[in-house]
């Protein structure tokens, strides 16, 4: 070692010691003077090269959501997350009989009630399982608790791909090797179900105080059932026509899946008739897909899927159609639901968010108005799906989280009853994905370091999922127009009111909430922030 290097090292280590002393000086007085109730576990922030931070969790540490206290009438509590680094920062408030003079006012009217909510959640893909199980056991526990326990954001919905999808390490279905096996004799779950999906589902249910609801969606039938003899690519339609043995076999595949999951202790709430049926029309679609026209889907449900599920005793598992972009509304359900013999098997309409930025949300309202007896439910969304987004994983990207809450608020304000995120966890490159269709996720796992990163998207999801349990009802809130940077919605859950507000702009706003049974709550909405207020009447 040369003299220069040695002295450089000496100086460097002195600097490090100096920095540590400086830190102690900064932190010690606090520790000595502040006698507080048990500290909540705050975000351990880390900045990468994006606009905000992630919260780092590992085997020994993970932030938790501060407990929602039991509130007396007139007491309120708010939770704030912001681009500047707040994550579920809790504040207590109380209603006053006088308010400030703020011109911005949100007036709650719980006499006007809209849709009842189902809930919020994410998908148990193979990729999610692979990533979660790649962590040390204690870190896995922190990750699962972050999503499903009362320490976390308490998801009550889970989506399960029925077989493989692109977020698998190989393309597969549950009956690939037995062409002509219309009786599904050789149908069998795969290693992925037993190793990655079912065990995680059981852990989520066991730690969850809320009742969980799972829905399953198929990406493709076995290749031998399809015109293109492949799980992906163009012309990906089922062979034959509704009512034939091939369509009966595909319907039976759904029942067999429901039965095998039941046998493994997972009861389904719902199935969707097909993930993104429009993908099957693309000339050269690059991952698992299968096409239906709305007329084909109507006939398949009426002649095969509906009667098939019924005859095998699965009336308790409800059926959703759609499961595709908002753009197919309201025309798709108009075709399928106009036939009462198909409609009688259907309960809801699933929507994906991928084209929402160019699609009028009033398509949702139109759909609701046409079919008030059918719920609309968000079945998939993720950031970085557009091909021009590079890199796919943007650690700490506030705007991705903001797009989540903006879309959720827009959906909820247009009759949607819940919202399901895509992969629960992905790796540092946004995979694994056998078709290289990498995207971002609210939780990114860094296997090498045995840690994971909770992104702004995670907290934006939590501003809804934590506070809006199944059965919450959207109510009227009269406030400023929602066509700018301010978005909001209000809900009631028993005696509690929940108000969520998102500010997408660079200015701080003073506002007031009016609840005429209680008075006024003066509030401050920080720049680039999302807040959830809850109070009891
Ligand atoms: C885990 O995270 C905590 C908080 O960020 C940190 O203090 C600790 O050193 C980390 N442990 C490991 C093994 O990285
Ligand atoms: C509140 O809602 C009820 C029921 O829709 C309506 O009759 C009433 O006019 C609303 N009140 C206000 C102040 O908007
Ligand atoms: C099921 O798989 C076995 C083993 O590969 C094969 O021998 C049998 O013919 C298959 N059954 C059907 C109905 O295709
Ligand atoms: C079809 O897609 C595959 C996979 O993305 C690609 O390798 C192939 O070149 C494409 N073929 C055509 C004709 O575009
Ligand atoms: C099937 C159905 O009810 N269709 C109606 C949906 O609503 C539009 C008006 O918004 C009517 O024109 C359709 O007949
Ligand atoms: C903090 C805050 O509310 N800032 C902005 C939020 O959105 C409204 C409406 O667009 C703006 O007027 C505020 O300045």
Automatic annotation (TrEMBL):
The keyword Cytoplasm is annotated on this UniProt entry: no
Annotated localization: Lysosome membrane
Bilayer topology: Peripheral membrane protein
Catalysed transformations (reactions): a beta-D-xylosyl-(1<->1')-N-acylsphing-4-enine + cholesterol = cholesteryl 3-beta-D-xyloside + an N-acylsphing-4-enine; a beta-D-galactosyl-(1<->1')-N-acylsphing-4-enine + cholesterol = cholesteryl 3-beta-D-galactoside + an N-acylsphing-4-enine; beta-D-xylosyl-(1<->1')-N-(9Z-octadecenoyl)-sphing-4-enine + cholesterol = cholesteryl 3-beta-D-xyloside + N-(9Z-octadecenoyl)-sphing-4-enine; beta-D-glucosyl-N-(9Z-octadecenoyl)-sphing-4E-enine + cholesterol = N-(9Z-octadecenoyl)-sphing-4-enine + cholesteryl 3-beta-D-glucoside
UniProt-listed Enzyme Commission number(s): 3.2.1.45
Pfam families cross-referenced by the UniProt entry: Glyco_hydro_30, Glyco_hydro_30C
Keywords, sorted A to Z: Glycosidase, Hydrolase, Lipid metabolism, Signal, Sphingolipid metabolism
Pathway the protein takes part in: Steroid metabolism; cholesterol metabolism
Residue ranges constituting the Glycosyl hydrolase family 30 TIM-barrel domain according to the UniProt record: 117-468
Positions of the Glycosyl hydrolase family 30 beta sandwich domain: 471-533
Family according to the record: Belongs to the glycosyl hydrolase 30 family.
PANTHER family: GLUCOSYLCERAMIDASE, LYSOSOMAL ACID GLUCOSYLCERAMIDASE
The protein, known as: Glucosylceramidase
Phylogenetic lineage: Eukaryota, Metazoa, Chordata, Tunicata, Ascidiacea
């Amino acid at each position: 070692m040369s003299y220069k290097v040695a002295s450089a090292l000496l100086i460097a280590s002195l600097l490090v010691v100096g920095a540590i002393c400086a830190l102690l000086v900064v932190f010690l007085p606090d520790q000595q003077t502040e006698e507080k109730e048990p500290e909540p576990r705050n975000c351990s922030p880390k900045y990468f090269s994006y606009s905000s931070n992630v919260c780092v969790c590992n085997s020994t540490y993970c932030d938790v959501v501060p407990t929602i206290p039991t509130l007396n009438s007139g007491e309120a509590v708010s939770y704030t997350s912001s681009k500047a680094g707040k994550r579920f920062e809790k504040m207590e408030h109380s209603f006053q009989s006088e308010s400030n003079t703020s011109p911005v006012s949100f007036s709650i009217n719980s006499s006007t009630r809209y849709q009842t909510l189902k809930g919020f959640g994410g998908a148990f893909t193979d990729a999610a399982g692979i990533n979660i199980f790649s962590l040390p056991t204690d870190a896995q526990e922190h990750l699962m608790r972050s999503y499903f326990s009362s320490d976390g954001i308490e998801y009550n919905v889970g989506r399960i791909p029925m077989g493989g999808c692109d977020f698998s390490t190989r393309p597969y279905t549950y009956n690939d090797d037995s062409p002509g096996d219309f009786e599904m004799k050789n149908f069998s779950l795969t290693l992925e179900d037993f190793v990655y999906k079912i065990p995680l589902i059981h852990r989520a249910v066991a730690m969850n105080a809320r009742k969980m609801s799972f829905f399953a969606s198929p990406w493709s039938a076995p290749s031998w059932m399809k015109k293109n003899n492949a799980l992906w690519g163009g012309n990906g339609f089922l062979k034959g026509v509704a009512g034939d043995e091939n369509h009966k076999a595909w319907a039976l595949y759904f029942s067999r899946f429901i039965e095998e999951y039941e046998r493994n202790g997972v009861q389904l709430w719902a199935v969707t008739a097909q993930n993104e049926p429009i993908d099957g029309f693309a000339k050269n679609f690059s991952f698992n897909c299968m096409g239906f026209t709305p007329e084909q889907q109507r006939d398949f449900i009426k002649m095969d899927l509906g009667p098939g599920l019924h005859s095998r005793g699965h009336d308790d598992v409800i059926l959703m159609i759609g499961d595709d972009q908002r753009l197919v509304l309201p025309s798709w359900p108009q075709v399928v639901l106009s036939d009462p013999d198909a409609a009688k098997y259907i309960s809801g309409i699933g929507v994906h968010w991928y084209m929402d930025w160019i699609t009028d949300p009033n398509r949702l309202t139109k759909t609701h108005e046409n079919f008030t007896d059918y719920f609309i439910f968000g079945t998939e969304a993720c950031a970085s799906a557009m091909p021009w987004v590079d890199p796919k994983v943007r650690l700490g990207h506030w705007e991705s989280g903001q797009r989540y809450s903006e879309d959720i608020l827009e959906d909820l304000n247009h009759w949607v009853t819940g919202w399901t995120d895509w992969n629960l966890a992905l790796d540092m490159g946004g995979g694994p994905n056998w078709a290289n269709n990498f995207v971002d996720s609210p939780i990114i796992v860094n296997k090498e370091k045995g840690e994971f990163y909770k992104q702004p998207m995670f907290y934006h999801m939590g501003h809804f999922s934590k506070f809006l349990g199944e059965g919450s009802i959207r109510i009227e809130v009269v406030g400023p127009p929602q066509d700018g940077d301010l978005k909001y919605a209000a809900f009631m859950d028993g005696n509690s009111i929940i108000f969520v507000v998102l500010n997408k702009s660079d200015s701080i706003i003073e506002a007031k909430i009016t609840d005429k049974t209680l008075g006024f709550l003066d509030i401050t909405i920080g720049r680039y922030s999302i807040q959830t207020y809850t109070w009891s009447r």
